[in-house]
TrEMBL record:
<dbReference type="Pfam" id="PF10941">
    <property type="entry name" value="DUF2620"/>
</dbReference>
<dbReference type="InterPro" id="IPR021238">
    <property type="entry name" value="DUF2620"/>
</dbReference>
<protein>
    <submittedName>
        <fullName>DUF2620 family protein</fullName>
    </submittedName>
</protein>
Length: 122
């Protein structure tokens, strides 16, 4: 699985995510434009974007290029595990959240993405 971390706290998101990954998975720091191109072409699987509100700059380009049915913002609220799981199960590829919530959101979002992959593989 390849994940692109973008937005204001992209480096922090990548640092939180790296120790959670399975062998063969990667996280790269990139831009929203990089992510849009790579998600559309299948070169990347997911995008985790951060901004101050979790709703604007974290996903603006991706909503425009992928469509709102492939993007989900958690905004300023700290999402529950159930909310994260539902967003993943809906088939979203890009997720936006507030930069000050990376420590909480990234591990929970990774768990949901990894679980979805395991279900798909079985």
């Amino acid at each position: 699985m390849k994940i692109i971390a973008g937005g204001v706290a992209k480096t922090e998101v990548a640092e939180v995510l790296r120790p959670l990954l399975r062998p063969g998975d990667t996280v790269v720091v990139g831009t929203d434009m990089d992510a849009a191109v790579q998600l559309r072409s299948g070169e990347a699987d997911y995008y985790l974007g951060t901004c101050h509100t979790g709703a604007g700059a974290s996903l603006g380009v991706l909503v425009g290029l992928l469509g709102s049915d492939k993007t989900h913002t958690f905004g300023r609220s700290l999402p529950s595990v159930e909310t994260i799981q539902a967003a993943v199960d809906e088939g979203n590829l890009a997720f936006g959240f507030s930069l000050d919530q990376a420590q909480e959101v990234v591990p929970a979002l990774w768990a949901a993405l990894d679980e979805r992959r395991q279900r798909a593989d079985s």
